Amino acid sequence: MRVGVPKEIKVHEYRVGLVPGSVREYVQNGHEVLIETGAGAGIKASDADYEAAGATIAPDAAAVFAKSDMIVKVKEPQPGEWVQLREGQILYTYLHLAPDPEQARGLIESGVTAIAYETVTDARGALPLLAPMSEVAGRLSIQAAAYALTAHRGGRGLLMGGVPGVLPAKVLVIGGGVVGVHAARMAVGLGADVTILDRSQARLAELDELFQGRAKTRYSTYEALDEETDGADVVVGAVLIPGASAPKLVTREMLKGMKEGAVVVDVAIDQGGCFETSRPTTHDDPTYVVEGVLHYCVANMPGAVPLTSSHALNNATLGHGLTLANRGLDALRENAYLRAGLNVHKGKVTYRAVAEALGSDYTDAAAALG
Asked: Is the per-residue pLDDT at 133 higher than 90?
């Protein structure tokens, strides 16, 4: 199979679909890899590095899309990209279709087989291809919040961990999954006063054991959200419903009760965000203010650390990627966990949560594959 990797074109997206080491794995498995020139510049990988790994360098993205059987990317295809996709081609990348009907229509009309990293599962019911970027985003959320809290960025002028004799910032993490755990770890490490909300009693028990009192846990109700946001200096939204739009948990009314200059970081923004007042921002212009509260809603947070992120992502996606290249659509027919990643196939929406969010007809993935 010919596997193509175009350069990412989303604003300030420096990650790359395949690092040179992954290219070598594809080549060793008998596949041809076509890399757009400069695709690895963000991770300091030159065209020569890719050629040494066995890749062929394409002059532009058009050549990659036209000549490849499978496209491996990081972020969802942009309008100029999805029009180049075609039936019979496999797209393997993050999609986040639920809050993005325009992209969904583009993929449906193209006829492409679109596999979303974020809905591939494993035997434990976890999301192994989403996890590494969730880890990065969780950690970055605290870095971003610490910077946004400074006075010159419009924040309250707080040092996250305080100093002797001065209280640290209060950090509220909504959601105790992968993002939430890594956000809490970073905040605890900086010396912040951390509380985690979650609706699973079993998960709260695990978090209590994990943090050993260094972070507090609380069952998530509207009353708890209201009380905890009122006292928080930082709120991290780390809520995920696989493939679906994120629930709007923090309302504008709740924001009105927060401190002026407090910071909210919406890590769920790729799925529409979990704050009522959230809208996507970019690394160029990452924050805005609503009701006196600073919002950080960058939709591709891990793109800020592309070297770490690209290697972490490749570690997770390589195995399934090789299986797709080796087996084609049979890989989806044979592996239910990989098939869970199939969101669109030959004009049909094959992931129920996406279909429900878009108000589209749903076709079972196994039935669509035949």
From this structure: yes
Which ranges constitute the DSSP H helices of 190-268?
201-211, 222-231, 252-256
Q: Are 238 and 174 in contact (CB under 8 A)?
A: yes
Catalytic, out of 193, 198, 270, 295: 270
- Strand 287-290 to 293-296 pairing: antiparallel
Verify whether residue 295 is a known catalytic residue.
no
Please confirm, yes or no, whether 96 is among the known catalytic residues: yes
Q: Domain 133-304: which topology?
A: Rossmann fold (3.40.50)
pLDDT for the residue 241: 85
Q: What residue ranges do the domains of the chain occupy?
A: 2-120+305-369, 133-304
Q: Which of 96, 182, 295, 320 is catalytic?
A: 96
Arch. (CATH architecture) of 2-120+305-369 = 3-Layer(aba) Sandwich (3.40)
From the number of C-beta atoms within 10 Å of its C-beta (0-12, 13-18, 19+), residue 202 rates as exposed
- The pLDDT of residue 243 is 82
Residue 242 confidence (pLDDT): 85
